[in-house]
Backbone:
């Protein structure tokens, strides 16, 4: 278990009678990007705060890099970088001065901190605005400055709370690239989000939160198989008569659902693309599009919460 | 399943003062370079300089010898405005302290810097104490500057140097003034911990200030009368009963930091002061009227007032500390 950096067992947080985090079990391995997903208020941020020792734990245990954040918060916080939701910096100070303050809080020697700060700012492409006041920074730049703080800290674990919320697509892309950069440097990343396609593109594993519980946990493909069934979905767009009937006639096809005009979603037990194309053409239809559908996290998420609501 | 005691109150490891000096230095330099500090300083200097300038003009014309002429700069009320330098400071120091402290914690929260700073290896203890000490140091700098200005003006306009005992009493006054500012800084920080809105916390701190400046002196006599038997209140009681009533009144008055500060200042800067309570015949035995007390006796006289101020500062700070420890950092 030497490679587990965060380990929670039966972690519990009560606000009065309400169970904000309801006995969750979670393991994050070294060098992976782990996503916490779920609607707002599902307990993601509370879980993160408990891992950092910033809020009391009502029950269960949590260990970060072998330290208990309740008893040894300083040891945990020395090794873990945290980027809060909508991170704030001191507006009247420059980017460099903000990081200098953090460096002093971390006890980094003065001679070393200047170099580490410039390296960190360089790695998030903020070196040219190092001496501009943070008041002039855009939201994306602030988030990047937050990443720079984690880089400067040389954290072993980075915990990012909603790092991409409120960013434009370009800024989001840049930030995700920086998060991948953290991973390349051997940092374990735990990030929470409700922006699913973004998370899907960076996360190795995800945990789906619902009402303070971990509803699903695993890789995106594992989750898809669990929720959507172990099928092989493809999308077909074609013109011709009774395409749906033709498709249903293929061996191994489990379902055919129309998705708008002249488009069908086919789920089969195996890859039936070649056969489907052949049959449609043979039946006199014209095939315009044939696509292999990757299971999308969005679909998993939507389907899961639909079912959860039906069950309730 | 109730969580066990060990789980709820675990011993935390590491010094609570880790990072204290970093927080202190940042707060101190932030205060000193802020525009707000400029305004507050201007405010203090105007309020301080006016009575000093006027009383210096009057003191220059005094011909009779006064061994404590220098201390009169601080305490004498000029005829044109009924305000001595110390009386003016009684009002201005709280404003200065409130101005420095009313947004110290909640502004971190509103700027969303609190959770980021607390995710660094420091305890909340260090953050709050560092902020308090940073504010106190700023206050001290402002008061020392003002004190030196007054001293310098006195040297220039009176043309005679203060004696060492006067300087010693002046330094004592400075210490008391800083302690008094500390009480109000702690009060302002308490409200900045309680309220998320900086406007609300400023209003509450100013409300407490107004209460002690205006209302408390009016309420105390009413409370005293209500708590004493009617015949004593009418002035028909025995001497000890009347004394008890006066004692009660001054005890109530001393719940206000302003009274404590005022009494300590009188004891220090008016060396003739023999008691801060009623003058009773037993106190007069063997006393030469108008003769000054030695410095150590004056210090003994005001010791309860000074410890009272420091105790009030610690109690209010402790209250802010307890509330801050329980506060959730998330929005």
Residues:
């Amino acid at each position: 278990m030497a490679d587990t950096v965060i380990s929670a067992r039966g972690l519990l947080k009560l606000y009065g009678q309400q169970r904000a985090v309801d006995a969750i079990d979670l393991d994050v391995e070294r060098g992976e990007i782990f996503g916490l997903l779920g609607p707002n208020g599902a307990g993601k941020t509370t879980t993160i705060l408990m891992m950092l020792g910033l809020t009391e734990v009502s029950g269960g245990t949590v260990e970060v890099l072998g330290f208990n954040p309740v008893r040894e918060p300083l040891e945990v916080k020395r090794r873990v970088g945290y980027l809060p939701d909508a991170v704030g910096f001191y507006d009247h100070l420059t980017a460099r001065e903000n990081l200098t303050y953090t460096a002093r809080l971390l006890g980094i020697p003065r001679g070393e901190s200047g170099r580490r700060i410039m390296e960190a700012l360089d790695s998030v492409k903020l070196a040219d605005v190092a001496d501009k006041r943070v008041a002039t920074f855009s939201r994306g730049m602030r988030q990047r400055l937050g990443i720079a703080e984690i880089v400067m800290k040389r954290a072993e674990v980075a915990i990012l709370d909603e790092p991409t919320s409120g960013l434009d697509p370009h800024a989001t892309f840049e930030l995700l690239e920086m998060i991948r950069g953290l991973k390349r440097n051997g940092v374990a990343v735990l990030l929470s989000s409700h922006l699913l396609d973004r998370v899907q593109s960076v996360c190795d594993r995800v945990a789906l939160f619902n009402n303070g519980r971990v509803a699903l946990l695993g890789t995106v493909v594992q989750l898809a198989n669990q929720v959507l069934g172990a099928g092989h979905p493809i999308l077909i767009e074609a013109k011709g008569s009774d395409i749906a009937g033709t498709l249903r006639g293929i061996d191994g096809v489990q379902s055919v659902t129309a998705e708008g005009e002249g488009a069908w979603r086919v789920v089969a037990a195996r890859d039936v693309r070649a056969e489907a194309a052949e049959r449609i053409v043979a039946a006199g239809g014209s095939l315009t599009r044939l696509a292999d559908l990757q299971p999308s996290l969005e679909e998993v998420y939507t389907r899961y919460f639909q079912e959860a609501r039906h069950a309730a | 399943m109730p969580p066990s005691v060990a789980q709820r109150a675990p011993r935390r490891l590491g010094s609570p003062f880790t990072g204290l000096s970093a927080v202190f230095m940042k707060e101190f330099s932030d205060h000193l370079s802020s525009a707000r500090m400029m305004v507050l300083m201007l405010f203090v200097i105007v309020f301080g300089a006016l009575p000093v300038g006027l009383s210096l003009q009057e003191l220059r014309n005094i011909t009779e010898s006064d061994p404590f002429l220098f201390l009169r700069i601080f305490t004498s009320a000029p005829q044109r405005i009924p305000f001595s330098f110390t009386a003016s400071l009684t009002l201005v120091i709280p404003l200065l302290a409130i101005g420095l402290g009313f947004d110290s914690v909640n502004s971190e929260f509103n700027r969303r810097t609190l959770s980021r700073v607390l995710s660094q290896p420091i305890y909340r203890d260090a953050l709050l104490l560092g902020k308090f000490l940073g504010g106190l140091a700023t206050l001290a700098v402002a008061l020392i500057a003002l004190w030196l200005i007054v001293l310098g003006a006195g040297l220039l306009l009176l043309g005679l140097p203060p004696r060492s005992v006067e300087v010693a009493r002046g330094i004592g006054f400075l210490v008391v003034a800083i302690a008094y500012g500390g009480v109000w800084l702690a009060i302002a920080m308490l409200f900045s911990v309680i309220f998320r809105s900086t406007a609300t916390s400023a209003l509450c701190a100013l409300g407490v200030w107004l209460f002690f400046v205006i209302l408390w002196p009016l309420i105390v006599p009413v409370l005293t009368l209500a708590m004493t038997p009617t015949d004593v209140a009418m002035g028909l009681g025995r001497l000890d009963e009347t004394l008890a009533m006066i004692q009660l009144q001054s005890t109530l008055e001393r719940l206000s930091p302003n009274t404590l500060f005022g009494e300590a200042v009188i004891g220090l800067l008016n060396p003739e002061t023999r008691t801060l309570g009623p003058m009773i015949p037993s106190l007069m035995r063997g006393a030469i009227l108008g003769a000054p007390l030695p410095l150590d006796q004056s210090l003994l006289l005001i010791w309860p007032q000074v410890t009272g101020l420091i105790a009030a500062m610690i109690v209010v700070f402790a209250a802010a500390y307890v509330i801050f420890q329980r506060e959730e950092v998330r929005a």
Remarks:
- The two ends of chain B are 29 Å apart (CA to CA).
- The first helix of chain B runs from residue 5 to 8.
